Amino acid sequence: KLYNLETRLENQEQYSRRTSLRFHNVRVPCEGGMIKHPVDTDSLILDICNTDLGLGLTIDDIGRSHVIGKHKNGFCQVIVRFISYRTRAKVYSAKKQLRGHPDKIFITENLTEYRSNIVRELGKMKHDKKINSYWTSDGKIYVKPNELARPMRIYHPDELIELENQARTGHH
């Protein structure tokens, strides 16, 4: 019962984030090593979406945005809640256009801590060449153990142990 309750709660929390995205490495105004507040994150995000992604969004497409976490050398994370899922999906599908951006800006889904931890582990596994690729879509986590494998959905951290074992033995 407890596992089912935790699973339902986790799924509900992720669902509540379905119109949000995280923008990483956003340049923010700083003075004396501190962020100059208030930061007009709406304008910063609209500039990225319109200049870098060519989407033509307006202020009416953003419900709310703000800096989260600490800044590093004038760059930080900005979380954005879009007014509609459709707009959020448009931005997320255009994120590939940020490859090679001079500020190394990238966009991720706004995952729960539970799912973020799984994705972090998958990142390490990819770096160590234990898996071919991984990605998220609508809060769901997918992995391809090798180039020829079909994508599989990851639900639980224990499944990563199985992937590690497969990588070690060469069975995919």
What features would you describe in this structure?
With 172 residues, the chain is an alpha+beta fold. It contains five helices and nine strands, in the order αβββαββαβαβββα. The chain has helices at 2-15, 41-52, 85-94, 113-127, 158-169; strands at residues 20-27, 30-31, 34-35, 62-72, 75-82, 106-109, 133-137, 140-144, 152-154. The strands form three sheets. Strands 4-5-1-6 form a four-stranded antiparallel beta sheet. β2 and β3 form a beta hairpin. The chain is globular. The chain starts with a helix and ends with a helix. 18% of the residues are buried. The mean pLDDT is 94.
What is the H/E order?
Answer: HEEEHEEHEHEEEH
Oligomer: single chain
Low-pLDDT ranges: none
β-strand amount: 25-35%
**What's the average pLDDT?**
94
Find the count of extended strands (DSSP E, 2+ residues).
9
